[in-house]
Amino acid sequence: MSRSVSVGSLGIGGDNPVRVESMLKTPLSDREVCLDMLRRLSEAGCEMARVAFPSMDQGDDLKKLVELSPIPLMADIHFDPALAEKALEQGCPAIRINPGNMGDPRKLERIVHMARERKVPIRIGANSGSVSSRQVKDAGGNRGLALALAVEEQFLMLLHHDFHDVILSAKSTDVGETLEANGILHERYGEYPFHVGMTESGSGIPGITKSSVGLGLLLSKGIGDTIRVSLSDSPVLEVETGYEILRSLDLRHRGVEIISCPTCGRKKLDVVAVLSKIKPLLVDLPDGFKVAVMGCEVNGPQEARHADIGVAGSPTGIVFFRKGEIVGRCPLYKLEKEMSLLIEPYRLKS
């Protein structure tokens, strides 16, 4: 078990669940747009958001967002130690820096002192684009090892100051490099919390697939205390994808899980159409509640017997089942009414 750090009231590492985070894609100066996205992210289950903090003139914007955001923020700092100090002064509960590009070592010492004083964790890390030619040479051309060495160099700078509230991160656009780098770092420093993900994974199916494969392999090895799915898309989609990855590994369950068959020539109902009808009904149900939609009753109830409630097509309409046992039948036009009645006892009471 890794040690834990706290970003505001959010615990990361230790016995805390794997956290799901995202990043704002709008300049801090667009306060209302940023706040609206933070609210949407919070509703989707996002637990922390990283925000780019590129200039001092956005200090007031950062302070306001820190005050109003429904989830904790992490200021993303590059090259300028004054920005790291400013983010800490403005009350940001976490910062992301590269200790190696903070200039004068006394400036890093100042940042560490301020972070320790405010109990603010520091996330450090490298991605494949920031690995230097020297590090690649030191690694004998092995870019996965070079990525690990780049992170280790940063980490040792913080350990030199006896600072341990650290989150480690090593990301590449290449799945193999990401796995190797994190494997090396986890073997050496596995007692510290890790942030994991695939950087610049793309958009749509390719981006989701790459992130799912990379994150799935890392998490299955016990590597990862907080994750981000980095997509060229909506931050909300990043969060939704992150939870689906965790669900598939049985690490966390948020909302209803829908099980549906791909259909075949035996189907007796339009699975896609039925899904669109019942999804609006699946509100106020417990996290992890399973609902199945199967094309026929030949295999439907048994293949989805682990579902809490399910519906399958039949020659005369539809059948309803619970944990594999058929509990009712009705014509298709009564689907929504009967489904509502079947679900009602399971709804969470406010």
UniProtKB/TrEMBL annotation:
Transmembrane segments: none annotated. The keyword Transmembrane does not apply. It catalyses: (2E)-4-hydroxy-3-methylbut-2-enyl diphosphate + oxidized [flavodoxin] + H2O + 2 H(+) = 2-C-methyl-D-erythritol 2,4-cyclic diphosphate + reduced [flavodoxin]. This is 4-hydroxy-3-methylbut-2-en-1-yl diphosphate synthase (flavodoxin). Keywords: 4Fe-4S, Iron, Iron-sulfur, Isoprene biosynthesis, Metal-binding, Oxidoreductase. Its cofactor is [4Fe-4S] cluster. Binds 1 [4Fe-4S] cluster. The lineage of its organism: Bacteria, Thermotogati, Synergistota, Synergistia, Synergistales.
